[in-house]
Each structure stands twice: as structure tokens, then as C-alpha cells.
Write a structure and sequence with these properties.
Elements lengths: L7 E6 L17 H19 L4 E5 L10 H13 L3 E5 L17 H4 L3 E3 L6 E5 L4 E5 L23 E7 L1 E2 L11 E2 L1 H6 L5 E5 L5 E2 L7 E3 L13 E8 L2 E8 L8
Helix pairs in contact: 1-2
Amino acid sequence: MAPDPRPLRLVHTSDVHLGAYSSSPRGREEPRGRRLEAGFEAVIDLAVGASADVLLIAGDFFDHARIGPEVVAFATDQINRFPGETVLLPGNHDPIGRHGPHERHDLEALAPRLRIVRDPEGEFLDFPALDLAVWGRAITVDVLERPLAAPPPRREERAWNVAIGHGHSVAEDQQLERSLRITPDHLADSAQWEYVALGHWDVHSDVSAGGATAVYSGSPASLGDIGYGVAVVVDIDTAGVRWHAHRLDPAETSP
């Protein structure tokens, strides 16, 4: 009899928006920007304290494509504090391609355990030691992209398959003005994944439907002046999938 696959623990965040205020006269000393950085530090503290295997960043890690090397250094220094694997999905604020920051900055060279989803047609990132495959579709500047549409079959050679996406969860025939639409049909097609890590909303939301477990993590810190948000801790094993939203406080981030 084959042994049960190893359990998996994920920490899921999104919409970190590092560098949002770095062009202000105060630069990185701008208090609002420091709060965004503190929020991401709290996510890393949570992932380390929870002994997570993987950190998922579901888009808009950076606020814009003009980020400077000091913001990149902060981001990669924090990622390197986490001893597990990190998966980064480019979002609409930090898109893949020549209009995005990933053409100018080689984050993977600075953070060796970081993997970036780069293919706008969709790709799998494989983690054999974790018995995990992560599928995602990198966002470009095309607002008509459909982040979860027509996914490929899951990787059956891996016990755990997780998807990561960045877009708006919408009703099929409503909110037609929304970009990066994720419809009920897309969620139903996502039921094959153990977990769908979503970004694009700054408020934590559970949009699970059609058999899919699909969750927006929400931002770790507000772009305004209203403090800190949450990150999601996800446990996957043969008993199923369990997740909980962990409220972030840079002063106390125990899991």
C-alpha cells in the first residue's frame, strides 16, 4: 500500500502594493508606505511561525512598474527570511511583460526560493519534494484576460494541485464593466484544484462555489490609513482542505 502523501501548509496573501508611495517626497520614509512594508513583514512572520511549506502571493505584490532597487531589496530580503518556497503571480499593477517590473528586476536571482508565474497562457510550477503543482496565468496589461478560464487538467502525478489567480469574481451576466473576470463557470472548472488562491480584492472574501474552494486573501495592509488586514493559512491533507483567515498585527503574528 502506497503511503499517504505528505500534508501541506500554505500561507496565501495578495495585493501587498509595495512601493505605492515610494515616489513621494519622503520616499520609503512615507508612513503609509512603511505600513505596507510592515504588513508584508507580518505575512512573512506568520509563514515562518506557522512552519508553512509555501507562500502564495496572488498578484499586485508591487504597486506599479516604476519601483526602484530599494523596494526590490526590501521585498527579496523579506522573502529570503521565509525558508519555504514562494510563488509570485504578476497582477494588473505589476504585470508580466515589458510594461511590468519583472523585466527590469530579476527577483528570482535575489531570492533563490522564489518562483514567478510568467506565462500569460498559463503554466504549472512543479514542487516534487512537496508533491505539489501550482497552476496560474500571469496577468499582462490586457484587462480582457480571464485568469481562471479553460484551465488544463490537474497534474495527476502530484497529490496536491493548487491554482493561483488575479481577477474579479462576478456573476455571469452582471458587472460587465469588471476587468479580469472570474465567472461561476470558471470556478466550477476550478473544482479540480485543492485550493484556489485569489487576489485583486483588498478585502478578504470567500467566493467558493461550484465545488471549488476559492478565497481572496485580502491585503495585509490598507493602502489608506485603516491599518492591517489578514493572510490565509491553508492546510491540505488526506482529510481535506481547511483554511482560516489570520488577522495580521506586526506586533504579534503567531499562527
